[in-house]
Amino acid sequence: MAEQTAAQHELATLVVECLNLDSVTPEQIDPDAPLFGGELGLDSIDALEIALAVSKRYGFQLRSDNPDNRQIFTSLRTLSAHVEQHRAG
Q1: Helix axis angle, 44-58 relative to 6-18, nearest 10°?
Q2: Cα(first)–Cα(last) distance of the chain, in Å?
Q3: Using CA atoms, how far apart are residues 71 and 79, in angstroms rounded to an integer?
Q4: CA angle at 63 for the pair 66 and 84, rounded to the nearest 5°
Q5: Core-most of 23, 65, 81, 85, by most CB within 10 Å?
Q6: Are 55 and 18 in contact, with CB atoms under 8 Å apart?
């Protein structure tokens, strides 16, 4: 498993907390593993919850109609890169 950056760990913590993932710690989320269809077992409702939590924490909207969502939500690494590129302040 690849090591998480500080930004990835912060985002992994947000994901675990907003989805109440009792069986997973932020450190257990592999930055390169698929967020959906992988061992986390996340679905489209989880994506909406993650998007809402990200918008509250980082000050920008992850829109459901964004054609790049499949790429953005591929893994913790891709989601973190998107957040770092768009976060406010």
Answers
A1: 120
A2: 31
A3: 8
A4: 90
A5: 81
A6: no
Beta bridge partners of 42: 36
Tell me how many degrees the CA angle 75-33-38 measures, rounded to the nearest 5.
Answer: 100
pLDDT tens digits, the chain, 89 residues: what are they? 789 999 999 999 999 999 999 999 999 999 999 999 888 989 989 999 999 999 999 999 998 899 999 999 999 999 999 999 998 76
* Burial status of residue 50 (CB atoms within 10 A of its CB: 0-12, 13-18, 19 or more): buried
What is the length of the chain?
A: 89
Give CA–CA dist 4/1, Å, rounded: 9
